[in-house]
Amino acid sequence: MTAKKVLILDHQQIQQKINRIAHQILEDNFDEKEIILAGVVIRGYKLALRLEKVLKEIADFKITIVKLELEKDSSKLESKIDIPLKECENKVIILVDDVLNSGRTLAYGLGVFLNIPLKKLRSVVLIDRSHKNFPVSPDFVGLELSTILKEHVSVILDEEREDDEVYLK
């Protein structure tokens, strides 16, 4: 028996969420000269690229995109970042991921930046499932979704075919 997929957000609804989050980021950082969007590979990075696209249309500040790779299943923080961490010092960092489930990925992502001086550290998730095992809460959320632990939320971001969707199965 296959699990039934339930569509939660379609392409247009995802874009509306991204637009709203981008405006919230702008409001939170209107007086900044630069922000860094640190996208957690893979879908968090894709989401960061989408946010960058909208922010470039509405904001005057410089936007730097950083690709953040985390070993999510490790019991300790293991990460790779595609720019020297020193370049993030004294800047606004916005950590971006697709789904917040237990909070481990978000906690590890925040941990990457804890040993350097920052102006501000914020986080964005498209979907917050509210099953946190770690004491983290995102600053900007596309959709809060109450689910049971057995359910799985999948985010598909396909730039070429505009085949974006978020579904529950």
UniProtKB/TrEMBL annotation:
Keyword Glycosyltransferase listed: yes
Residue ranges occupied by any Phosphoribosyltransferase domain in the UniProt entry: 8-154
UniProt keyword terms in alphabetical order: Glycosyltransferase, Transferase
Domain of life: Bacteria
Family matches, as Gene3D superfamilies: 3.40.50.2020
Molecular function per GO: glycosyltransferase activity
InterPro entries: PRTase-like, PRTase_dom, PyrR_bifunctional
Membrane is among the record's keywords: no
SUPFAM superfamilies: PRTase-like
Protein name in the entry: Phosphoribosyltransferase
